Amino acid sequence: xxxxxxxxxxxxxxxxxxxxxxxxxxxxxxxxxxxxxxxxxxxxxxxxxxxxxxxxxxxxxxxxxxxxxxxxxxxxxxxxxxxxxxxxxxxxxxxxxxxxxxxxxxxxxxxxxxxxxxxxxxxxxxxxxxxxxxxxxxxxxxxxxxxxxxxxxxxxxxxxxxxxxxxxxxxxxxxxxxxxxxxxxxxxxxxxxxxxxxxxxxxxxxxxxxxxxxxxxxxxxxxxxxxxxxxxxxxxxxxxxxxxxxxxxxxxxxxxxxxxxxxxxxxxxxxxxxxxxxxxxxxxxxxxxxxxxxxxxxxxxxxxxxxxxxxxxxxxxxxxxxx
Length: 323
Description:
Layout: E1 27-29, E2 32-34, E3 39-41, E4 47-49, E5 85-87, E6 94-96, E7 101-104, E8 109-112, E9 130-133, E10 144-147, E11 152-154, H1 159-162, E12 177-181, E13 187-195, E14 200-202, E15 220-226, E16 230-231, E17 237-241, E18 248-251, E19 264-269, E20 279-282, E21 295-297, E22 303-311, E23 314-322
């Protein structure tokens, strides 16, 4: 008996004083109890450790964990290469991923597939490719811009594309004026070019590098004096012929497309010798001139203007004026 307690045993017995300091968790240290300040408890169920804790699995709330690196987090949502973002359903603050928003490591590009890109600020890049779909301002038009890395093509260019009313060089909004590119790579209205809905008006000279068609278009004059047989190639042009020495034949171009219909060609006797030596104008192949195989200038200083026409018998030529 010791201190009011009696110990009864069947063999040898001994008592061991707890090791370490107060709150130290006890462990077997070579047959004796021992404790360490590295593993303690306050008796309320909390466990504190100042060294590593190793286990086959951990469970519970990890909201107070700090210092975790990306390599230590071994769970990501979505398919491989999916960019991670926050979602609040079904769990608030959850990290998720989607096949619509991917980072392609092979090409170092961000890929949007079946998703829209929205920004309240400017989007900047060294280059843009593909299609941009409207509307570009309030309205129901579905204008399409296609940029191939060199130029922008569109099936409808107006103030909706530029996002503002067309203005002149001073910034003043203008009506009826046709916009032109300036040296500053901006679109401005030009008072010399106007369109009132029915009439296109040009103030000053009009230069055309290609083919232009209009009933009142002023023809260009070829300064070459043709003294031998020649080919008539340029539409809306006057060809000058010097037939003082012999009869000369000019051959019209072959008509093959509707885009040629309406083109006109004029042949002129320059030196007044048409009454002595004819100037013959012949179509190409089996095409006809008013049903005939040629048109003749047989008067001095005479001229004939022919137009490309299309009818039930196909492409042919018609004489529209004779002087």
